[in-house]
Amino acid sequence: MVTADVVTARTGWPYSSLSFRGFQCWMTVYRRIWRSSIWSSVLGPLFYLGAMGFGLGSLVNRHGTASLGGVSYLAFVAPAILASGAMNTAMGEASYPVFGSVKWNKIYVAAQASPLRPGDIFRGHLLFMTIRIAMNMALVTVYMWAFGATRSGWVVLAWPAATLTGLAFAAPIAAWAVTLKIETSFAYLFRFGMMPLMLFSGTFFPLSQLPGWLRPLAYATPLWHGVDLCRMLSLGDIDVPRALIHVAYLTVLSVVGIWVGARTYRRRLYV
Questions:
Q1: Own/partner pairs, 59-68, CB within 8 angstroms, 24+ separation
Q2: pLDDT band for position 36 (50/70/90)?
Q3: Distance between CA 242 and CA 11 in Å, rounded?
Q4: Quick one: pLDDT at residue 11?
Q5: Dihedrals φ, ψ of 10, to 5°?
Q6: Does the pTM exceed 0.70?
Q7: Dihedral (C-alpha) 10, 16, 22, 27: value to the nearest 10 degrees?
Q8: Cα separation, 125 vs 93, whole angstroms
Q9: Would you say 147 and 114 are in contact if contact means Cβ atoms under 8 Å apart?
Q10: Beta-carbon neighbour count of residue 46 at 10 Å?
Q11: Do 109 and 102 form a contact (C-beta atoms < 8 A)?
Q12: Could you give the maximum distance between any two Cα atoms of the chain, in Å?
């Protein structure tokens, strides 16, 4: 039986630091491929925010913004793009890269030959996913400020709020992705998960415009909690009890995902 003392003696790294070693592996990979993410991480959000805020926004503003709380469409949609961008980044990072690490490039398989335990492999990769989400959302937050889409200094907290939203998606999806045998299941995730959430979570229009029977379903989605939290921070219209409920919901979902992931990774990678 390999104990923590044995691992420490062999590697110089205690068990508590092994997850960070897994994270360093993914940072090494990213240093080689970061150029491929320039569009999705840097230019894509810039053009998307401009097209939705100024392009579509000019049409919406022309017909009045009473249903938006009296703010411009740019100010309304920008924090929602921040939250939904975190979800999109999380889904992208927690799906194919996790599956590929078992079946294609076999990074997880190589990690099994090291002192890293399955839980360390999972937590190290999840830490990298969280950093990627935070990096992307930092750029979107800067774009929001540059476009004049913010109404309050509280917008600085929308960045960690969006990162938490992304983590609430990344942890459960990674826990599920590692169990898959074929990659075709991801098509259902993006088609029947991402797209409906983007459309019906208060992202592009207020939930008050949805049919009454559909609103409770929208309120139960993680993205709505992230969108509403980022929007109130960006606009400065903060309802503290509601904000705490959003944070608690997203935190619980993240914790559950981490708990489940430690077990699904162990079942899949344990030798």
A1: 67/205, 67/206, 67/208, 67/209, 68/206
A2: confident
A3: 47
A4: 44
A5: -80, -35
A6: yes
A7: -120
A8: 9
A9: no
A10: 15
A11: yes
A12: 70
In which region does residue 106 sit, left (phi positive, over 0), alpha (psi from -120 to 50) or beta (all else)? left
pLDDT of 14 above 70: no
Report the chain's terminal Cα–Cα distance, integer Å: 14
Q: Where are the alpha helices (DSSP H) in 113-183?
A: 118-146, 158-177
How far apart, in whole angstroms, are the C-alpha atoms of residue 239 and residue 198? 23
Q: What is the pLDDT of residues 88-128, one digit of tens each?
A: 999 999 999 999 999 999 999 999 888 899 999 999 999 99
Please, are residues 158 and 230 in contact by the beta-carbon 8 Å criterion? yes
Alpha-carbon distance of 189 to 255, in angstroms, equals: 21
Residue whose pair of structure tokens reads 């992208």 in the numeric block: 92
Nearest to 160 by CA among 267, 28, 43, 251: 251
Over the stretch 192-239, which tens digit does the pLDDT of each residue have? 999 999 999 999 999 988 888 889 999 999 999 999 999 999 999 999
CB 49 within 8 A of CB 140: yes
